[in-house]
Amino acid sequence: MEKSEFVLRAKSPPAVGLFAEATSLSALAAQEAVCTRCPLYKNATQVVPGEGPPRARVLLIGEQPGDVEDVSGRPFVGPSGKLLDIALERAGVARDKCFVTNAVKHFKFELRGKRRLHKKPDAGEIDACRWWLDRERALLRPGLVVALGATAIRGALGRSEAVSRLRGDIIDLGDGVQFLATVHPSSLLRLKDESDKREAWRGFLADLRKIARWIEKDARALD
Ligand code: SF4
């Protein structure tokens, strides 16, 4: 983040409406850092903005930061992120060519003793944070938006849809942007049965390979 663009967290954060429209992703991240659009900022360590090249053609959207991301301030660096890295590599997608973000930018959790257990963001929180996701997307102008899981689908489309209904097909969003839905990598980590795990892994890789093919086609079209 450039120093001049960094906004220090104020004791009483300004309402989002008072911000000037951010003209860069780093300026947007600084605005997100003082966001109070929903209550999730109150208990999280820090905001976790999106990360990646500002001209990335692919936008990967997850659900929300986890415990590791909340502490580090970076998206997809915990167990789900590590699994995503492996899956992207196997599928032939370079993660550092993608912009990676979350539908909700602050970690939602409940305390169990000293442990902070992930809690799914509700529709109101996803819709409040969509304000930032829309601005990330407007600045980035990706050609392909990939939603990882149901929360990301709601963030990307503004409505709830089951992953199983949208999964697998690249669809046109009607604004020159295409869209692909798949599962969130954390859903694979939760599976206990070995054959379920193998099947879920194969399905996830098959979806991610569609991104690789899209990137190849996109690069040819831009040549
Ligand atoms: S989760 Fe999103 S909308 Fe809620 S406070 Fe954080 S940045 Fe703002």
CATH topology descriptor: Uracil-DNA Glycosylase, subunit E
Find the count of extended strands (DSSP E, 2+ residues): 7
Chain oligomer state: single chain
By DSSP (H or I, 4+ residues per run), the number of helices equals 8
> What's the CATH class, please?
Alpha Beta
Shape: globular
Describe the strand arrangement of the main beta sheet, using strand numbers. 2-1-5-7-6
Number of domains: 1
Superfamily at the CATH H level? Uracil-DNA glycosylase-like domain
Outline the biggest β-sheet. 5 strands, mixed
- By secondary-structure content and strand pairing, the structural class works out as alpha/beta
Low-confidence stretches: 1-14
Percent helix: 40-55%
Task: Measure the end-to-end span.
Answer: 31 Å
* Ligands bound, unique: iron/sulfur cluster
Which architecture does the CATH hierarchy give at level 2? 3-Layer(aba) Sandwich
Radius of gyration (Å):
17 Å
Order of helices and strands: HEHHEEEHEHHEEHH
